[in-house]
Amino acid sequence: MAFRYAVFGSGRQGTAAAYDLARWGEAESVLLADQDLEAACVAAGRVNDLIGGEVCQPLQLDVTNAQDVEEALTGIDVLLSAVPYTYNLKLTEFAVRAGVSMCDLGGHVGIGREQHGYHSAALEAGISVIPNCGQVPGMGTTLIVHAMSMLDQAVDVIMWDGGLPQFPRPPFNYKMTFSIVGLSNEYAENAMFLRDWQVTEVETMTELEEVEFPEPIGKLEAFVTGGGIDTLPWTFAGKVRSLQNKTLRYPGHFAQMRACYDLGLWGLEPIQVDGVEVVPRRVFEALFAARVTFPDDPDMAIIRIKAAGEKDGRPAEALVEMIDYYDPRTGFTAMERCTGWSAAIVAGMMSRKQTPPGAGGVEIMVPPQPFIEELARRGIAIKEVVRFQ
Question: What predicted TM-score, i.e. pTM, was given to this entire model?
């Protein structure tokens, strides 16, 4: 059976998602829409060249225009939103009204929880609505659920994750692999974790630690940032004692970013500078992105999860790890493979009715085993082991 997909947003992740759907999503067609028609045409052309067919069609679209979105969704089975998260709540309304299943790359826990409010409407329409389906949250969410399922009872769960350059450049030792707005939001917003069985707000840019990886990666640092585990704390409150994630970076990056945080450079309240009103976070984004954008540098994406608890009546821990690298054959970065492709896997599962109707978090709506099998089809390997203590 062939399916018709729409991808809104033809940036890095939207293009990667469109390619994934065209190659692995049993696609009859993939509509790749963007407010910039030229960008949509270039992206669609790249996808078609890679797959050797004319599956992907470009479209100029303003996602805030209800009538234009309604027309674009006519005859579509699944919508994948790769536009900034600020548009996703309204797009959810449009999708539900059109009877089209929807997933997105997300980036904001509060907006995702608001999208869950469309559960009854999505049930009635017989569609699935699943926000925050990128790498983390998204793939990481599913792998956390999988790690917990490897034990009879999980008690303490932690995930470490990050997208990094394979060959870091000083001074920041970082490479911009997705939206700077999404990155600054993760750095600036407090995290919501489970601590002592309760949903707990934890200050961002805190709790620095070192984490060892096999060479050539070596020693990384990890620290608290916002949004990485999405709605997992509310789903597992009272069922798991602790559940949290930390962002991985090369040593020294934390101190640099903590200084920006302490200076107030991530604030959203305008300030006056020489009589001009500026938003500090927009200034940071403009300056920082320019200094960490290296389009030709290869990257890698890492997710490591440890779930501690009990199995077969004995203390045990489940370890799950994913490390992926830039693919020179297709030109897709590790972050594009693990973010755009992750959301595309969910879109494909929606089209095949492998996700239940309604609206909810990845941890409830996406069955882990089919998702992991789809990762393997794409050459993204998951290592897993249970160790008894």
Answer: 0.95
